[in-house]
Amino acid sequence: MAPLAPKTGDPLFANVERVNAELFTLTYGAIVRQLLADLEEVEEVNKQLDLMGYNIGVRLIDEFLAKSNVSRCVDFKETADIIAKVGFKMFLGVTATVTNWNAEGTTCSLVLEDNPLVDFVELPDTCQGLHYCNILSGVLRGALEMVSMKTEITWVRDMLHGDDAYELQAKLVKQVPEEYPYKDDD
Amino acid sequence: MANTACFIIVSRNDIPIYEAEVGSAPKKEEAAHKHQFILHAALDIVQDLAWTTSAMFLKAVDRFNDLVVSVYVTAGHTRLMLLHDSRNEDGIKSFFQEVHELYVKILLNPLYLPGSRITSSHFDTKVRALARKYL
């Protein structure tokens, strides 16, 4: 019988390879700093981080599904729960909470109390519009697109701009049915 | 509690990256300029002295009337300099060590260019609180 899908990410987190948290934080910081130096425009950097996250997400979803053994999610609500409890725990070591469901169940907020990417970071005055963790929104968007869900992810609250937590809003735009890639009558 | 105390951080290129008057006496304009002048004049002495010892805390390196200059040199040759009139050496050493820790946290910020001015108001508040506590 197949092993039961985990409800929390803790056993998975214990099994995956880990890297030093400070190395991870400093490497991400170096990426952001280099992007700021190369692109100079804060909006461009935000877009580039999102694109990088998208590319990571489309590959990350395969690793996630392979390691975590979750079964197909029934609806978007379950998807969001799995992302918050299992996904974030497995890759970042923190859990998020899911709140703010709208009436149809297509929009929710993922709230992160602490975020390893932003240790020690303080935004200078020249970069006030920067979404420092924009890579996360790209990762979520890419990963969900690979499992047939088109979503829009935006930042609602950001601790670097003075709020008290990190809040991502995930909006399900459309469930894309799987397309069979080959035509049958060749 | 020191009546006059002027604290500056000078980078390895001899550019001041942070300054604060942390004494408890009322601030006077000429006094502030005089303090900065005295601290900059002490830089030459600090440079020579820093190479003679492996300790980070160089005690009193220079004197002007009754004001003493104490310096703490970090591993990256950033000098934390304090101009004061008190004799509380242990307090000053603890103050320097705590400011050093705050400085390291600033350095870990990837968006901070080492050697540029420290503009974080959070850092400023903390340094003044430490000055009230230790000096």
From TrEMBL, chain A:
One of its GO terms (cellular component) is endoplasmic reticulum. Signal peptide: none annotated. GO terms for biological process: Golgi vesicle transport. Coiled coil: none annotated. CDD domains: TRAPPC3_bet3 (cd14942). PANTHER family: TRAFFICKING PROTEIN PARTICLE COMPLEX SUBUNIT 3. This is Trafficking protein particle complex subunit. It comes from Phoenix dactylifera. The gene is LOC103718383.
TrEMBL record, chain B:
One of its GO terms (cellular component) is cytoplasm. Transmembrane segments: none annotated. InterPro entries: Longin-like_dom_sf (IPR011012), Sedlin (IPR006722). It comes from the Eukaryota. It holds the Pfam family Sedlin_N. GO terms for biological process: endoplasmic reticulum to Golgi vesicle-mediated transport. This is Trafficking protein particle complex subunit 2-like isoform X1. It comes from Phoenix dactylifera (Date palm). The gene is LOC103721304.
